[in-house]
Amino acid sequence: MEMVVVAPPAPGRLENLKRRFFATPLQALLSLISLAIMAFIVWKLLDWAVFSAVFTTSGGPEACQAAAGACWSVIAARWRIILFGLYPFEEQWRSALACVAVVVMTALSCIPAFWTGRRIALVWGAGTTLYYLLMKGGVLGLLYVGEEAWGGLALTLFIFITTCLIGFPLAICLALLRRSELPWISRTTGIVIDGVRSLPLISILFTFAIVLPFALPQWLVGDKLYRVIFGSALFFSAYQAEIVRGGMQGVPAGQEEAAMALGMSYWQRIGRILLPQAMRNALPATINQFVISFKETSLVVIVGFFEILASGNAAYGTGEWRFAYVEVYAFIAFIYFVFVFSLSRYGAFLERRMAVGER
């Protein structure tokens, strides 16, 4: 008589927790102590941020100073400075609408139906143009507002978007040039990439903002904001070029050889065979580079721009709210978290959809 072996049932969640954290008396004691410490920290944070906090501006700064919790009144009183910076008060609706245009543009780019070169170019071109017209004005009856008055979240988003728009195509060009079969082209490109990557971003921003005007003719100097954006895009492209090149090296050589056997031209091989697979391979590192670039926009405060971090400094810089700097920075950190976390989750979605890492 043949015996039938029945596999034991899979352990449930409680059984897994018991095995992982309560396997021995000592492990159980350490788990309980850790749990108690985490519960204490969470309770203190909730008590400070919610239960004992002040949310209204009715009592003024004095009510916040007398309270034991957070002073969120500073956000209610100074949110315009944080979000819009030096932008004229009567025109701040334009800055808000420009931020919405950037968010909508990004959201549309995340929809698979728009994943064609023509549609992506149309969405990003229209969104960037609408943003620029709303912020600068001078047309359609809108008051002209120079770049020196831009600030807050709107300026942070503009620097990030334009850095990616300029830097990403430049990165692809640098990656292709570094793969050139002509040694003088590949080596020169490698020197440029390694030279840019060896410099801190702060020094590049300072050079493009302060030093470069002394080395260029007056007609080529341009506005300081656009010089800083180009410097940031150059820095972004140097790192992204190596990411793209690494993705290209991950494509089997037989793919390009098969395309050559089919009679495809160089640009057809690049556009239809090599780059799509390279970008798929480089997707996790590319998303990480976007996240880093978004956070690095805060460095432009060093060269005199009023982005969201500088706006936060101004929000509590007045004498009456000087004590509430923790709440202001917590609010700014929350804004950064929302954008960065959304970008990271979208990157994870793309990885699952494209089955990155699977063969």
TrEMBL record:
Its main location: membrane. GO terms for biological process: amino acid transport. PROSITE patterns: ABC_TM1 (PS50928). It comes from the Bacteria. Residues 153-344 form the ABC transmembrane type-1 domain. Keywords: Cell membrane, Membrane, Transmembrane, Transmembrane helix, Transport. GO terms for cellular component: ATP-binding cassette (ABC) transporter complex. The keyword Protein biosynthesis does not apply. GO terms for molecular function: transmembrane transporter activity. The chain crosses the membrane at residues 21-43, 93-115, 122-144, 150-177, 198-219, 323-344. Gene3D superfamilies: MetI-like. It is found in: Cell inner membrane; Cell membrane. It is a multi-pass membrane protein. Belongs to the binding-protein-dependent transport system permease family. HisMQ subfamily. This is Amino acid ABC transporter permease. It comes from Mesorhizobium atlanticum.
